[in-house]
Specification:
Layout lengths: L24 H28 L5 H29 L10 H4 L14 H26 L4 H29 L1
Helix pairs in contact: 1-2, 1-4, 2-5, 4-5
The structure holds fe (ii) ion (2 copies).
Length: about 170
């Protein structure tokens, strides 16, 4: 089957709001699109992990992965998509997500019983997310208040995820 043409999610002209002060809207949109893509890839990684894990501790840990996957999609992804709407930007064509993503996905383990290895991949993903949101925060701070507040909220969640995965790691070891 022939591939359908790409969906045009970028408008001819970006919208702006009067509150923006000293930001390049194009740069904010690029950041938001990269973050949106990272969130979809994180959702995919965690849901894949939840179904892949095997072994005695796997049920409980899979449930944690599913819960965090929900945060990435239903909270972070959705809120970033809403902010993009203020700039008149839609959801990208599915084929563009990997290219747009900043953090991509870490290499996933091949052994479904090695729960530690899957947790380490999740910790790696969260570390990248935290670094990236910190970079966006520094750019928009005091210049694009609505994006700043959103990034602050997401950054705080990612730190929580990071800690939770770390805690599970020590439990998986015992
Ligand atoms: Fe997230
Ligand atoms: Fe996260």
């Amino acid at each position: 089957m022939e591939e359908p043409p790409r969906y045009r999610y970028m408008p001819e002209e970006l919208w702006s709001t009067p509150d923006l002060k000293g930001v390049d809207p194009r740069k904010v949109v690029d950041y938001l699109l990269a973050a949106l893509s990272d969130e979809l890839l994180a959702y995919h990684q965690y849901v894949l992990t939840a179904f892949a894990l095997k072994g005695p501790n796997s049920m409980e840990i899979s449930e944690e992965f599913k819960k965090i996957a929900e945060d990435e999609l239903n909270d972070h992804f959705m809120k970033l998509a809403e902010r993009l709407q203020d700039y008149n930007v839609d959801i990208p064509d599915f084929r563009d997500f990997w290219k747009l993503s900043r953090c991509k996905q870490p290499a996933l383990p091949s052994d479904p019983y090695d729960i530690d290895a899957w947790l380490k991949a999740a910790i790696e993903a969260e570390e990248c997310a935290i670094r990236f949101y910190r970079e966006i925060y520094d750019y928009v701070r005091d210049k694009d208040v609505r994006t700043e507040e959103l990034i602050e909220h997401i950054l705080s969640d990612e730190i929580e995820h990071y800690t939770l995965f770390k805690n599970l790691l020590s439990r998986a070891k015992s």
